[in-house]
Structures are given as C-alpha cells and as structure tokens.
Amino acid sequence: MRTITTITELRRAVAAARGRGRMIGLVATMGALHDGHLSLVGRARGECDTVVMSVFVNPTQFESRDDLAAYPLSAERDADLAEAAGVEILFAPAVGEVYPDGFATTVTVAGLSEGLCGESRGPGHFAGVATVVTKLLNMVAPDVAYFGQKDAQQAAIVSRLVRDLDIPVRIEICPTVREPDGLAMSSRNARLRPAERKRAVGLSQALTAAEQAAAAGERDADVLGRIARRKLAEHAIDAEYVALVSATTLVPLDPLVPVDAVAGPVLLAVAATVGAARLIDNTIMVLDPRN
Length: 291
Ligand code: AMP
Description:
This protein is of the alpha/beta class.
C-alpha cells in the first residue's frame, strides 16, 4: 500500500493503475476505521482491481469546533487496517491540500440536505459533505465509489449530486455493519461510556420493533413512528428525530396515507444523542401492499 498526501501524486498513481487497465474503486472515510469501513473495502476489492481509500476529517462538515476537535484520530492504526484489508492507495491529505487559500466553491444538494440530520446539524453540514465528496470524486476519478447505508441521507445526497453533475462514477450503497447486539458501527461509538453503550442498542431495537409491526401488517406511519419512539424510551433515549420518509426523495410520509401506498422504498431513520455521542441508524422498508 502507498500512502499519498498530495493530489498531484494521487492522480499520477491512479493514472498508472488505469494505464495497466485496472478498474478503480474509492472508499471515502474520515478515519477511525472499523468493520463498517472495511466492509466497503471488501466490496470494492470484489468488484475493482485497485482500491483507493481516502482518510480525511473534513472540517467543513462539522458544525462546531468542539465536535471536530473530539473526532477520533488514529492514523497509524488506520493505515495498518487499510493495508490488511487490501487498500492499494491510501490518500491522506492535509486540510490545506483540500482547501487551499482562496477556496470559494460549495456544492449544495437542495431539498435532500435540509431535513433529518440537516435540521439539527445545520445547512452547512451536508454542503460540506457534498463539496468534499465532489472533490474526492474529481481527484480520484474512480469507476465506482462505495458508501454506507448507515449514513442514508449522505448516500441519497451523493447519488443525487453524481447524477445532477454528470460525474462519471457508479455509486454503490453498502449495508450497515453492526455490533453483535445490533448497534450500528460508528467511529462515534467510542465516546459511549459502558452504561451508555448498553442503552445505545435502543436505536437498532427501535428500528426492529417498527419493522416487526410493519411485517405484522401495520401500515400507519404515525403508529410505526410511535412504536420506534416507545422502544427508544425503554432505553431512556430521547430521540432527536424518528422519521419515515421516501428513501429516494427523503420527503416525509403523509401520516394520512398508508405506508405501502408510497411509491418506492420507505426509509425509517432515527437520530439520538446518548451521552457524548450523537448516533444515527436507519432501515429501509420495502412493503408489499398485500401483506
Ligand atoms: P465516515 O468515516 O464515518 O465518514 O464513514 C465513511 C464511509 O463508511 C461512509 O460511506 C459511511 O456511510 C460508511 N460507514 C460508516 N459506518 C458504517 C457501518 N456501520 N456500516 C457500513 N458502512 C459504514
């Protein structure tokens, strides 16, 4: 594995691989790697010849300095894990390489960015995400880029910006990797104290409870949301949001319209702060109207 810190060197390395006829896959991360990130690498390795991983804690997507300062950093461990997983090129640029003096451009995906996490994290959050992802796609120019379903809103935004800006890349959204008890893996889980870690399982259990109700025939969005909230409350978790939205447009479901009357898959998403960690999780429900 080669670790590269400049865009010029990155482009040269990717061009050399492409010159050898290799298909390029990109996994973009903010480091503090866990099995969720590595599952994306595994998928990329299965489908591409050369896997590029970026590790860049993007300052523009953090709404507060404290949150940015608290973000875990583990460069050496990340490099070891990336290499063991089969990453060929590790791109770890400094902030000044990505945002040189005079940087003035922002990519905003209207509509998809404002609800859910956009509401609490502010309008700048997903603009920061969309801008850095656009830049990384331009820097690496991969054939395929892999993102996790865990960050469902980000996945929808990236898919839309690639389509809207005609960026020649295929976006693959990969399933959420979970701890044995169901908690979605996240770099932020490290902030949970033992008692909070136990309570945090409430997020995935809330999703499961709503899914089970849907499987048993419940089609009222309000009722499904209430079932999820009740499960969160059992774990003393006060949700920031519990939302049932269209998985593609992220538009909230009309409570007067049964869930299975909505065209396409439905996303049930939750966000909650447990201790010092803001956690998110979601599930996609594809409901058969006859059930
Ligand atoms: P992050 O480092 O948190 O920005 O995440 C980098 C990529 O890994 C994003 O595409 C995330 O959606 C994805 N990811 C993070 N956690 C998980 C997980 N538990 N399962 C699958 N993908 C994940």
